């Protein structure tokens, strides 16, 4: 009975509002896409059972609000993450420029034990828009940024058409699993309130 252990892997999706974070998550978990846009308030998550090397684990994917007024709500959800997915819209330069801010903010708030080697994956979403004629961020530029941050895996995706979504999340799951195996402890459940000691605002402890 003890031989079969189910592992919970926590994945956080970050990026500007409107880049398609919720749509990517829904396409991966439910194989559905909705053209209706509704901003995420706070954070929400979906789970998916995944098998790797005869081992069953649950991917818990957290979709966080991209709007600044809700970002403070996301801090507690960053803790205990096993992988962070950074998403931008290839048709919006600002969403790409903000990737660094999202990455830095995550590392500050999540406080991973080994920030230099914490697994990130970058998704350039909405490659389907206008047949690719509207894009302003080239694949070359995005890959160069990923290389400069320690060779972060990069995928160009379309949540609408399902392009590269499955492939991207396979890599996300593998990176999350690898990170989880390096952790010293394995909590049975994610308890947001108890994953770490509370820190005072501005405390660098």
UniProtKB/TrEMBL annotation:
Lipoprotein as UniProt keyword: yes
Top-level lineage group: Eukaryota
GO molecular function, one term: GTPase activity
Gene3D superfamilies associated with the record: P-loop containing nucleotide triphosphate hydrolases (3.40.50.300)
Keywords (A to Z) from UniProt: GTP-binding, Lipoprotein, Membrane, Methylation, Nucleotide-binding, Prenylation, Protein transport, Transport
Membrane topology classification: Lipid-anchor
Single GO biological process annotation from the record: protein transport
Subcellular location per the Swiss-Prot or TrEMBL entry: Endomembrane system
CDD domains: Rab7 (cd01862)
Transport in keyword set: yes
A Pfam family reported for this protein in Swiss-Prot or TrEMBL: Ras
GO terms under cellular component: endomembrane system; vacuolar membrane
Family indicated by similarity: Belongs to the small GTPase superfamily. Rab family.
Protein name: Ras-related protein Rab7
Source taxonomy: Eukaryota, Viridiplantae, Streptophyta, Embryophyta, Tracheophyta
């Amino acid at each position: 009975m003890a031989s079969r252990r189910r592992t919970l892997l926590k994945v956080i999706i970050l990026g500007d509002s409107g880049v398609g974070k919720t749509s990517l998550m829904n396409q991966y978990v439910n194989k559905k896409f909705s053209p209706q846009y509704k901003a995420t308030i706070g954070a929400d998550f979906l789970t998916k059972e995944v098998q790797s090397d005869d081992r069953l684990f649950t991917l818990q994917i957290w979709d966080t609000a991209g709007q600044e007024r809700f970002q403070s709500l996301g801090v507690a959800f960053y803790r205990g993450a096993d992988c962070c997915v950074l998403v931008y819209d290839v048709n919006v330069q600002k969403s790409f420029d903000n990737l660094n801010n999202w990455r830095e903010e995550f590392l500050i708030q999540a406080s991973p034990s080994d920030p230099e080697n914490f697994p990130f994956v970058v998704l350039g979403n909405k490659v389907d828009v206008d047949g690719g004629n509207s894009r302003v961020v080239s694949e070359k530029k995005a890959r160069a940024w990923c290389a400069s941050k320690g060779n972060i895996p990069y995928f160009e995706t379309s949540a609408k058409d399902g392009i590269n979504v499955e492939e991207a999340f396979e890599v996300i799951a593998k990176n999350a699993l690898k990170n989880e195996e390096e952790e010293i402890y394995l909590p049975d459940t994610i308890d947001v309130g108890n994953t770490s000691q509370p820190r005072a605002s501005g405390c660098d402890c």
